[in-house]
């Protein structure tokens, strides 16, 4: 499952519920260091001494083939737990719907023991004072976290310590229609590396019929804020201030900077010139355009690769390439996407917290991550998963899956690629989409559009920061 676009209803409640949720925590939570007492990480002996089975709920947002993979993962864990633990996977809807339901559960004091929260919900989860930081369990058990991919771990870490366990991690890719390239006399094994090159090739890959109607566009992508975040990172630029919110609370977003304006103008020019189709913000529509074979180049997450390969059978060959950089001089790399697992401490017994951790350990192991990778297309968070035979066989059969892994390993972690920790990041993403769309449809010049978009989220940032300050 790819990362869904923010729904307006969820965005609208972020700042309000943030303050309410933090108030509901009272004094029972922890500080940013994980606190003590109720939120300590219990030892394994609490399960060993248990005389009955410990049952916990695991809230998630996976659907389709990814939900099937989650159910299998849970079934495998329950089977090997020796009757001590039973995890019940409960689908809660989209990422936005899941975090909205989680915030409601905080107020109702009925949180699940384990919850999957998308990347941009991380700042809220830290500030909620509901969770036991993952590093507490890691330190308690002497768990080897060194096998977690560094670029993935960096996103979910604060002050160098892991707060949640990465679960379904994605990275953006450039998707290519091989046959479209070949028909245009282009080499599909030599993909464009930056926006300028994409623009040049898009002109060559745009095809019109005898009546002048465009039957194939050179480029397409959803008007999706995540893609803007990725391009800023590839240019080494930070999305928000204070070290991307990692040296203190971020006080402003920075997608009105020169790089973002350049991206908006580039996109606008392609659509205006007729070399890119504007399918709007709905990611399903952009995906459908590429899967239909009427788009030659397309930006999307690696999490949709399995679906793309299946959909293109008999029509065209899907190839993948590294996500483009803004320019030839850009030296950064993209940001991790997807979601991670958080263990709730408030309102949960030591047995429940330990049971949740035992499942997290199981899910992050090399064998399970290899199964997860090959079943979904998400990047394995455990580097050793790539050594498993099932993964080796899969990569040999579908080399398109290697691109995301190679891209992940290409650059060391940086502040820019770690992503922005912002309490109202969902709203910020929507605002960037407002700006990008305004530029593309021509209602505002690109520079003004991105400037107004950044300003529009300032009130929400200030309100959130005041609620947690």
From TrEMBL:
The UniProt record lists the keyword Transport: yes
InterPro entries noted in UniProt: Bact_solute-bd_prot1, SBP
Keyword Transport part of the UniProt annotation: yes
UniProt organism field: Micromonospora echinofusca
Annotated protein name in UniProt: Carbohydrate ABC transporter substrate-binding protein, CUT1 family
Coiled-coil residues: none
Keywords linked to the UniProt accession: Signal, Transport
Subcellular location(s) per record: Cell envelope
Major site of localization recorded for this protein: other
